[in-house]
Write a structure and sequence with these properties.
Layout lengths: L9 H22 L1 H20 L5 H43 L5
Helix pairs in contact: 1-3, 2-3
Length: about 100
């Protein structure tokens, strides 16, 4: 006789809801023209600042580089939240289908 653990637990349902909510909010932010404009504008500004640095201004180039990477990290984190939310929606849908079909899939 094999033991099949329950497919969904209350804590899992709550986790999925939180992930879905965070993912949707991250998606809205990523789709926001205001945020897109901000990120694109800051990147353009940082690239321009980097290009205008004097030969000996290593610190100025490093500062622009670090800021550019911070913007990239922010965008990647939002992408990750958004994708995790989409996967949580799929998981929640699969769990709902499993529960409706009596777990016989």
């Amino acid at each position: 006789m094999t033991y099949d653990p329950p497919r969904i637990v209350v804590s899992d349902a709550g986790r999925l809801e939180r992930e879905i909510s965070k993912g949707r909010e991250a998606g809205r932010l990523l789709d926001s023209p205001l945020l897109r404009g901000f990120l694109d504008g800051r990147r353009d500004s940082l690239i321009s600042r980097w290009r205008r640095t004097e030969m000996g201004d290593v610190e100025g180039r490093e500062r622009a580089y670090r800021m550019m990477h911070a913007l990239d990290a922010l965008e990647r984190e939002l992408d990750t939240y958004s994708e995790t939310g989409r996967l949580a929606e799929i998981e929640q849908e699969d769990e709902g289908n499993m529960n409706r079909s009596g777990g016989s899939e």
